[in-house]
Amino acid sequence: MRAVSGLSAEVRQYLVITGNYWAFTLTDGALRMLVVLHFHALGYSPLQIALLFLFYEVFGVVTNLVGGWLGARIGLNRTMNIGLGLQVVALGMLLVPSAMLTVAWVMGAQAISGIAKDLNKLSAKSSIKLLVPDNLVLNKEQDRLYKWIALLTGSKNALKGGGFFLGGVLLTLLGFHDAVLVMVIVLALVWLASLVTLRKDLGKAKSKPKFAAIFSKSRAVNTLSLARLFLFGARDVWFVVALPVYLSATFGWDHWSVGSFLACWVIGYGIVQMLAPRLTGKAEGKVPDSKSVFSWAVALSIIPALIALAMMMDFRPDLMLPGGLLVFGALFAVNSSLHSYLIVSYANEDRVSMDVGFYYMANAMGRLIGTVLSGWVFQVYGIVACLWVSAVFVTLAALLSLALPAHAAPTQASPKQASPKQGLSAHRSH
After folding, report:
1. Residue 183 above 50 pLDDT?
2. Residue 117 parent element (H or E)
3. Which of these, 67, 63, 355, 69, lies nearest to 208 by C-alpha position?
4. Domains assigned to the chain
5. What is the pTM of this model?
6. Which residues are within 8 A (CB) of 277 and not within 5 positions of it... i.e. 6 or more apart?
7. Which of 46, 50, 390, 392 has a beta carbon 3.0–4.6 Å from 304's, enabling a disulfide?
């Protein structure tokens, strides 16, 4: 306790936000696995199970767009706590008797969970901008921002993969109802703690923005958002439906094998995200710019194309597909981490939640498009076509990154010579 009390107020708030984010992510991953495994046991097809999550993605698009505006008006502490509270409600909806667990009811619960997830995520990401000193003239502050964002994002994704395992374990040991009950109790306690500990004015704009302000006027934010749409569409076009069904139907993997592979993929993805600053030159004092984003995106676009060519030639698809997608996951993690840093860096301080919300709206739209295409393209043309679509989407993301502004070169100005606000102005001019 003494160690915690000795930390700065900003760091303590960062720990509270990160703890909230971790708890939410664990339950979110576990919930997804519980629903998939439980409804598969009830005889639902993979496509029917995928449709259970349709509202999860649809409402994520709306939430990210509106949630940023809401965060600026009422504060990020409130939007984060609303997100945690809604997740408790979504989990509680699944505690009804089995006869009431209809498709419509579960889709409704998933819709609430989708709203909760994106409120929680945009609040966490936006808060980092406000908790890290914003002296952007000094490169070390950008360096710190990059490191904190990578840590938060990477740990979240690693824990989501852990949530897949947790969901399977809880289902095996406790059954569906009791597993959900345990998660409700734990998350409710986290929510109550957050209500007490999270700073009341975090992220609240100095003037209440109009609803029309939810749409970003920043060229950098808009360009990066469109690139993000294609990046995540490139992942989900094979990840959501095509890959699990293909591994099960073609390779004969059982459901535990499929679930374990996806969990390992997500965990590995999260670990690489946490290491992204080192991989991209943080040790040499480098921070991401448009050139580095383009280079990593080009490297990523090659992987699904190579996997598709290998499968068209029938060259060990049992090895090339899972092995190639593990490589894709590592490169995708770096690309995602670069994007996550840049959006927070580009965001205007007084409307950070709206800029980040707009960006994650595009992220959710990419997931939605990828999810729909994953089912349709795979059903009509097969998994090779899904991989070619993935390669095209990443290429588009790479080309868009060329239009991103470069960061200002770091100067030797001291903190006394340049205030945080002056640094912010220098950054915005680029």
Report:
1. yes
2. helix 103-131
3. 69
4. 2-202+214-405+416-428 (1.20.1250.20)
5. 0.72
6. 143, 146, 147, 150, 337
7. 390
